[in-house]
Amino acid sequence: MPVSSADSEKTLASTADYHAEAPLVQGNLSFHDITELVTAHTEKKTPLAWWGAFSLANIGLLLLVGMVAYLFWNGTGVWGLNNPVGWGYAIVNFVFWVGIGHAGTLISAILFLFRQQWRTGINRAAEAMTIFAVMCALVFPTIHVGRVWAIYWTLPIPNQMEMWPQFKSPLLWDVFAVSVYFTVSLVFWYVGLIPDIATMRDRATTKVRRMVTGVLSMGWTGANRHWRNYEKAYLLLAALATPLVLSVHSVVSFDFAVSIVPGWHTTIFPPYFVAGAIFSGFAMVVTLMVIARKVYGIQNIITIEHLEKMNIIILLTGTMVGFAYITEFFIAWYSGVQYEQYAFLNRAFGPYAWAYWTMMTCNLVFPQFFWIKRLRRSVPFMFAISIFVNIGMWFERFVITVTSLHRDYLPSSWDYYTPTFVDVLTFVGTFGLFFTLFLLFLRFIPMVAIAEVKGVMPQADPHFYDHAGDGHDQAHDVSVTTPQDHTQS
Amino acid sequence: MGIRKSNPFIWLLDPLRPTSASASYRFEWSQSAWLLPLAVGIAGLTVSAVGWATDASQFYFSYLVGWAFCLSLALGGLFFVLIQHLTKARWSVVIRRIPETLLWSFPLLAVLGIPVLFGMHDLYHWTHLELFDPASPSYDPVLAGKQGYLNSTFFIARLVFYFVVWTIIAYKLYTESIRQDVEGAADIPARQRFTSAWGLAVTAVTVSFAAFDILMSLDPHWFSTIFGVYFFAGSFMSIMAFTAFIAMILQRKGMLGGVVTTEHYQDLGKFLFGFVVFWAYIAFSQYMLIWYANLPEETLFFRHRLEHGWEYHSAALLIMHFILPFVILIGRWAKRMLPLLAFMSVWMLVMQWFDLHWIAMPVLHEHAQFSLYDLAAWFGLAGVFMAAFMFRLSRHALVPEKDPNLATSIAFTNT
Asked: Is residue A17 one of the residues assigned to a domain?
C-alpha cells in the first residue's frame, strides 16, 4: 500500500518530539555519496596543501629525531632534571600522550556498547589518533631509561643471566598495560577498516592499489556470512577493549599513587586519571575534527551534533576532574598529615602556583562554558576550548609530577625545576611525529568508517523502502507490498 | 485535571494524590500490598528497640548499616534517573518508574535518620569533646586538627543540607514524571533533562561528601579520596539489582505483561554486571594503593578488617561481591534467564548490605560477629522503606505512560 505524503508527514509530526534527534548524516546523502565523499580523498591527486602540512610535520619529526640523537650521544644530563626532580618532561609527556590516546577506544568500544550511534562519524579518526598518540607516548619511557640499548629488559624475556624485570614495579605494569592497549586498539582499528578497504579495492583503478587493498581487505566480499562474523568479532573486541580503556590510565596513575610522595599517594588517582584521559582525548578529537571536517568537506558526516556531543563529554569529564582536584585538596587537609597538607598548599601557592592555576582554569573553569548550548555548538569557540583543555591537561601532569617532587622531605635539597631546550624541543618534536602519522592516515585511509556510517542511516533500515520510494532515489510511485498487508487483506 | 498535592501527613510518603493509569500500566496488586513489608518493618524495628534498650552501641551501629543500605538504594535510584534523562535513554523508559518511585524516599529516610543523630556519641568517636582538649589525657592532636569539619553542629548541618538538596531534585524529577502521566505536557522531557544536568553535578558532590561523613568518619583517623566513588559504585549496582527484582515481582503478579521484556532484563543485567566489575575496580584501587604504600595511618583501616575473624568477611566480600557474580553474570544467557537474574539481584542486594556492614562494624567490634540486631535493623528499616515504596507505586502508573519514547522502549531489542 503506498503511503500518501500527507500520511507520512503526519507520522513525522507525531514523532517530531523533543527526543527526535537530528539525523546523524545530514544533507540528504545517499550511500553512494558517502562512499564518494570519503574515498575520494584517498584517490585524488595529493593536494599541495597536504604537502605543505606534511612538510611542516616532517620538520617536527626531524626535530624529534635530532633531539633524541643528541640525548643518546650526551645522556640524560641534557635534560633539566635535578636532584629532587628526577622525573620531568619525559613522564609528563608520556602521561599526556597516553591520555590523548583514550578517546579513540572509548568511542569505538564503550560508546558502541552504549549503542551511541553518533560514534560512527568520528570513530575511525579517533582510533587512528589513539594509536598515534600511544606511539608518541612510548617514545618517552624508551628514551628515559638512559641506556636505551637495554630497553628490551623491560620485557620478561628468559635469558642466561636469569635477569627478570621487577614485577612489583608499576613501571613494568605500564609496559604491559600500554602495549596491550596499543595492540588491541590496533587490531580493533584494523578489523573496523576491512569493509572499507574492500570498498577501496573495488574502486581501485591502478594495479598497485588493487593489490595492496586486495591483500589488506582479506578477501572481504560483503557476504552475509562475512558480516555476521565481522559483527560478532567487533562486539567481542569492544567488550575486551572496554576494561582496557579504564585499566591503562589506572596503571599509569599507579606510577604515582603507589609511592609515598605527598600529592601522589591518594586513592582517587585511578578513576581520576581515567576521567582526565577521556577529557583530554575528546579535546584532541575536537581539535582535529574541527579542522578535518572543514578541509575535507565532510561537515554532513561529522555534523555539529557530533561536535556538540563531544563537548558535553568534555564538560562532564572536565567537571569530574575538577571535583577530583577539590576532593584531593579537601582530603589532604582532612588527613591531618602535615606533608600532604603542605604538598597541596605548595601546589596552589608555592613557586609553581602559576602552573596550578593554569591547570585549574583550563580544566575546571573553561569547560563550564559548555553549559551554554550556543557556545558548545560554536565551532570557533569549541576549537579554542579544546586547545585550552589540552594545555590544561598537560599542565595537570606537570603539576602532579614537578610540584610534588621539587620540595621533598629534605628541605636542604629543595630545588626549582626548569626544562632545557632539549626537553621542550623533544616534546614539540612528538607533535611532528603525531601529525606526520595523522596526515598519512588522512591521505591513504578512509577517515570515516564508511560501512558503519551507512549502517546508521535511515536507508539501512530494511523497511525504509516500504514507504520511501523504490530505492532508486525516485519518489515512491511504485507500490511496495509487505507481508502484513497480505494478512490484513 | 492535573496533579494535586497530597495532605501533609501523606506528603512524607507521597507528595501527590493518586493518579489514574490506563489498564496496562495499573497497579493491580492489592492496594494494601504495602502492609506486608510494613509488618516486617515494624517487627524488625520492635526487635531493634529491644536492642536499643539492652545494647545501645550495637543497636546504633546495626541501625546505621540498615539506614545506609536504604540510603544507598535511593541514591543509586537518583543517579540512575538523572543519567537516563541526560542521555535521553530510550530502552529504560519501561523500567524507569521503579527507581523514580524510589526517589521520594529521601524525606522518609531523613526522618528515619533521626536515631542516627541520637546515636552520634556511640557511632562517631570524634563527637567525644575531650579529644579536642589539650589538657585531657585522651587528647588526640590528629583529630583536633579535624575539629573544624568533624563537629556535631557542622555534621548535622551538612546532613540536613544533603537531604534538602536530594529532596529538591527528587521532587522535581518525581512530580514532573507523574505530571507527564496526567497531562502529557510536551515540555516535560526537556525540563527533566535540565534538572538532571545540574542535578547530576550536585548529587555527585553531595553523595561523595555524604559517604565521607556518614561512613568514612566512623573511623575518623582514616581517609581515602576514593571513598565517595566506592559508595557510588555499590549504590548504582544495588539499584540495578533492585529494579530488576521489583520488575520481576510485578510481572509475577500479572502486571507489566509484554511491557518489560527479556530485552530490558538483559540490559539491567548488563548494568548489574558492569557495576559489579566497577565496584571491584574501585575497591581494588583503594586496597592496592594503601597496601602498596604501607603507611600506618591508612593501613589501619584494612588492618582491622584482616584480623580477628574479619578476614573471613573480607574474603567473602572478594568472592561473593566480585568473583562469583562476575563468573555467573558474564554470559548473555545469564542475563536472560530470569530466575537466575532474580537470584543474583537478591544476592547483590545482600552483598551491598554486607559491604556496608564490613565498613561500619569493625569500628565497634574488634572480633568479627553478626548480631541479631544487625538483621533486625536491616529488615526493620528496609521493611518500612519498602512499604513506603509500595505505597507510592500503587498510587500511580507503573510506567511513565506518556513518555514520548515509551513505544520505542517497549519494542526495544538487543540486536
From this structure: no
Nearest Cα of chain A lies from the Cα of B34 at a distance, in angstroms, of 35
CB contact under 8 A, A267 and B405: no
* Binary contact (A260, B293; C-beta < 8 A): yes
Chain A positions contacting chain B at CB under 8 Å are 17-19, 21, 114-115, 243, 246, 250, 254, 257-260, 265-271, 319-320, 323-324, 327-328, 331, 334-337, 371
DSSP A150: G
Element (H, E) at B262: helix B262-293
Greatest alpha-carbon span in chain A: 94
Mapped to the 3 state alphabet, what secondary structure does A92-104 carry? HHHHHHHHHCCHH
Separation between Cα atoms, residue A296 and residue A38, nearest integer Å: 9
- Interval A134-168: pLDDT, tens: 999 999 999 988 788 888 888 888 888 888 888 98
Comparing A129 with A6, which gets the higher pLDDT?
A129
A15 within a domain of the structure (yes/no): no
Which stretch of A219-233, A406-420, B10-24, B321-335 has the lowest confidence by average pLDDT?
Answer: B10-24
Q: Is the ipTM of this complex over 0.95?
A: no
CA distance A438 to A434: 6
Record the cell numbers describing residue B65, joined without a space: 548499616
In a domain, A18, yes or no: no
Number of compact structural domains in chain A: 1
A258 is in which domain, residue-wise? 5-9+23-488
Rounded CA gap, B369 and B350, in Å? 17
Residues of A in contact with B146 (CB under 8 A): 334, 336
Say what the pLDDT of residue A176 is.
Answer: 92
Question: Choosing among A335, A339, A372, which should be mutated to test the B contact, i.e. which has the most B CBs within 10 A?
Answer: A335
Alpha helix stretches (DSSP H) within B87-105: 93-103
Residue A20 pLDDT: 58
- Is A14 domain-assigned? no
pLDDT at residue number A25: 85
Instruction: Collect all residues of chain A within an 8 Å Cβ-Cβ radius of residue B405.
Output: 19
